[in-house]
Write a structure and sequence with these properties.
Blueprint: H1 2-19, H2 24-38, H3 43-77, H4 81-91, H5 95-109, H6 115-132, H7 137-151, H8 158-167, H9 171-175, H10 179-206, H11 211-219, H12 224-227, H13 241-257, H14 262-277, H15 281-314, H16 317-328, H17 337-343, H18 345-348, H19 354-370, H20 376-388, H21 398-407, H22 411-435
Helix pairs in contact: 1-2, 1-16, 2-15, 3-8, 3-14, 3-15, 4-5, 5-6, 5-7, 5-10, 6-7, 6-21, 7-10, 7-22, 8-15, 8-19, 8-20, 13-14, 16-19, 17-20, 19-20, 20-22
Domain Citrate transporter-like: 13-386
Pfam family, one: CitMHS
GO molecular function: citrate transmembrane transporter activity; gluconate transmembrane transporter activity
Length: 439
């Protein structure tokens, strides 16, 4: 009975998340409470389950709030703008170089872990260049989205934070083993961009674009007005570029070193960055208010997930569901279930949103395979690596709809153009992760 209630609870949450008829915060809080009451637990017991769940995610919440604020300040101050503009100027006129440069720009723009800000920076900057060179704008979306997905493995982005809350681990600890894979993935993506750039060049030539037109397009000078993303340039602090860069590099080094909790590191960095770039108190508060909605929304979702996981774990629903599923699945599949789910991670993005995948599917799979000797982190990595590359082909991604709107593109055409490249790329990364021992 307990496993049935657990299954119905998780299924109800998934259905509500997919339908969009209930926000993730409300569904993650209310439905598990109803399930626990139905299973016969008292309000006092549910309160204890809640306390346990929140205790496991509070450090993740702290890190998210201050990480989003910090990188928001760095974006405002223009830390990444010179690098992005330089890459655009170097690559203009060369189709293959533009494709490879798109990967670099996408990775830099996504250092803050926010898909919306990444697309707000990259699409207005690169779309005019793609149009002038007659390049397919869906290639722009494929390369930026995949590059951002690779960078989405950083601990202050959504997926690793969600995994940290599920496993009760510091997201920074989960991220460190993924750093070599991120580097490999970016190199491979630049190789794929080179190949797709050559293919795009041949496609353009086949469209009977004359050599004179190509030369004219290549010779066109891309002005600042063409490439600059829509943002408040009065917030930029070009004179503090090197100071901000050193501060950010120091922050990343401290995160990798692991001598201090990640949340504390971001607290310290933010307390330095704010008065450094915006000495007036009013300006500091304006910057915090500007980025607070993103920070608080992510924090609220993680806290709601902590409540959900605390209740399902403390009530025994998760254990019961995992135990009963093991009896139903063929024995030879169970130890490899995380790899199977990871293999189909990108297709899952088309039917499950991020919260459903990490808060409903991951806990069950992790509970099943760990009973067969698989480490929790190995199970989580397999599911993350297989799924995360497909982040920006998901119709459940609000940032993707923003990107489509900015570029004037269609969701269906984007999925048809990008899906198999992204799925194949995710499978290759999963295989590499197995080979180098991450999974």
């Amino acid at each position: 009975m307990l496993s049935i209630i657990g299954f119905v609870t998780i299924l109800a949450i998934v259905l509500f998340l997919l339908s969009g008829k209930m926000s993730p915060i409300i569904s993650l809080i209310t439905i598990p409470i109803l399930g626990a009451l139905l299973a016969g637990f008292s309000i006092a017991e549910i309160g204890l389950f809640f306390d346990d769940g929140i205790a496991k995610v509070i450090s993740v919440v702290i890190m998210f709030i201050f990480a989003i604020l910090y990188f928001g300040i760095m974006q405002d101050a223009g830390l990444f703008d010179p690098i992005i503009n330089k890459v655009i100027k170097i690559s203009k006129g060369n189709i293959v170089a533009v494709a490879v440069g798109t990967v670099i720009i996408g990775a830099i723009a996504h250092l803050d872990g926010s898909g919306a800000s990444t697309f707000l920076i990259t699409i207005p900057a690169l779309l005019p260049l793609y149009k002038r060179l007659k390049m397919n704008p869906y290639l722009l979306l494929l390369l930026v989205g995949t590059s951002a997905s690779i960078m989405n493995m950083v601990p202050w982005a959504g997926p690793i934070g969600r995994v940290g809350s599920v496993l009760g681990m510091d997201p920074t600890e989960l991220w460190r083993p993924l750093i070599p894979l991120q580097i490999i993935a970016l190199i491979l993506l630049m190789g794929l961009a080179f190949f797709l750039g050559l293919r795009e060049k041949r496609r353009i030539e086949k469209l009977a674009v004359s050599s004179d037109q190509l030369e004219a397009a290549a010779a066109l000078d891309v002005t600042d007005d063409d490439v600059a993303p829509t943002k408040d340039t009065t917030l930029a602090r070009p004179k503090l570029l090197w100071v901000n860069l050193l501060l950010t590099l120091g922050l990343i080094a401290m995160l990798v070193w692991g001598i201090l909790p990640a949340g504390f590191i971001f607290m310290i960095a933010l307390s330095i960055a704010l008065p450094l770039n915006y000495p007036k108190v009013d300006d500091q508060m304006d910057r915090i208010k500007a980025h607070a909605p993103n920070a608080l929304l992510m924090a609220a979702i993680i806290l709601a997930a902590g409540s959900f996981l605390g209740i399902l774990g403390g009530s025994g629903m998760l254990d019961a569901l995992a135990t009963d599923l093991v009896t139903l699945l063929p024995a030879f599949i169970i130890p490899y279930l995380h790899l199977i789910i990871g293999f189909f991670g990108a297709p899952f993005e088309l039917i499950l949103n991020t919260d459903a995948y990490y808060f409903a599917l991951l806990p069950v799979v992790e509970q099943i395979v760990t009973s067969y000797g698989v480490e929790s982190t190995s199970a989580a990595y397999a599911m993350v690596i297989g799924n995360i590359i497909g982040t920006f082909i998901s119709p459940f991604s609000p940032a993707l709809w923003l990107a489509l709107g900015l570029a004037g593109l269609e969701m269906g055409k984007h999925i048809r153009y990008s899906f198999f490249w992204i799925w194949g790329f995710s499978v290759v990364l999963l295989i590499i992760a197995v080979v180098i021992g991450i999974v």
